[in-house]
Design a protein that fits this description.
- The chain is built from twelve helices and six strands.
- It is α/β, with parallel strands linked by helices.
- It folds into two domains: 72 residues, Orthogonal Bundle (434 Repressor (Amino-terminal Domain)); 142 residues, Endonuclease Chain A (Endonuclease, Chain A, 2-Layer Sandwich).
- The longest helix is centred in the middle third of the chain and has 17 residues.
- It is globular.
């Protein structure tokens, strides 16, 4: 048997592959047997073990489930990706994929979970041109976002409540074609049975309770987690004394924002200016 020796020290990706092989062999499974458990081909498993293919969020979660490793592979995957993400964000995303309800507020850009691939790519490419991130990190941001979105597509999807500042809708990103597609995606999102979409218009002025984006997650045990970002880092908060006032302020924001019907009407009005 032609067995390639692995060097876990050569890269984080190689360390992931070596761990996958070790866990598989501890179970006495071949690559084909593990692939059958995880829903991947033996060739794909081999490529990840030898570092030729990078792990994905979906593969990492499947490995944890099949190998009984808790969330070890998912956490290792997030460590690999962390170089392209804000501090604190990988931990938040680990909870996001399992939340039963998401409340999102965004300023300036469409919330990530609602972005089209072209819109997300335009934002990443802009950051690359500014020198904020590398081209590789830009690719990681786009693929990581796609994996976050995919994690919410499940038999019992979470409720997703979104309030966007009007600047998210009015600010053109990527040109008319990309923006037109993105606005269409928002209208489609609003029509889903598990979603609510609202726009907070400029006219609410000082009644807007937040000056930074905010995410609030309700977990299966009904606990609530808050996540907020500055320009350089993210912070996750679990303490009820800190989270509950944010939840109350979010409810106030929803009351000030346009109804979903009025929000969709505004989005469609903006769409008229795009092809």
């Amino acid at each position: 048997m032609n067995r390639k020796e692995l060097n876990p020290e050569s890269s984080p990706q190689a360390a992931f592959g070596a761990r996958l092989r070790s866990s598989r062999e501890d179970h006495g499974w071949t690559q084909e047997e593990l692939g059958r458990q995880m829903g991947y081909s033996s060739t794909h498993i081999s490529s990840v073990e030898t570092g030729w293919k990078p792990p994905t969020l979906r593969l990492s979660r499947s490995a944890d489930l099949s190998l009984g490793t808790g969330d070890a592979f998912e956490r290792q995957f997030r460590e690999i990706r962390q170089g392209a993400l804000l501090e604190g964000f990988p931990e938040y995303v680990g909870h996001e994929g399992r939340a039963v309800e998401l409340r999102l507020y965004e300023i300036g850009i469409i919330p990530g979970l609602l972005q089209t691939p072209a819109y997300a790519r335009a934002l990443a490419d802009s950051a690359v041109r500014r020198g904020t991130i590398t081209a590789e990190q830009g690719d990681e941001r786009v693929s990581f976002l796609a994996e976050r979105q995919a994690a919410l597509v499940r038999p019992r999807p979470p409720s997703i409540l979104v309030v966007m500042d009007e600047s998210c809708v009015q600010r053109p990103i990527g040109g008319p074609e990309i923006m037109g597609e993105q606005l269409g995606r928002l209208v489609e999102f609003a029509a889903l049975p598990n979603t609510v979409l609202q726009v907070a218009p400029f006219s609410i002025g000082e009644r807007r309770p937040f000056n930074l984006p905010l995410n609030l997650l309700t977990l299966a045990d009904r606990g609530v987690i808050a996540y907020a970002e500055s320009q350089i880092q993210g912070r996750m908060e679990r303490e009820p004394t800190s989270v509950l006032p944010l939840l109350s302020a979010y409810h106030q924001l929803q009351a000030e924002a346009l109804s979903q019907a009025a929000s969709v009407a505004m989005i469609n009005q903006v769409r008229k200016g795009t092809p």
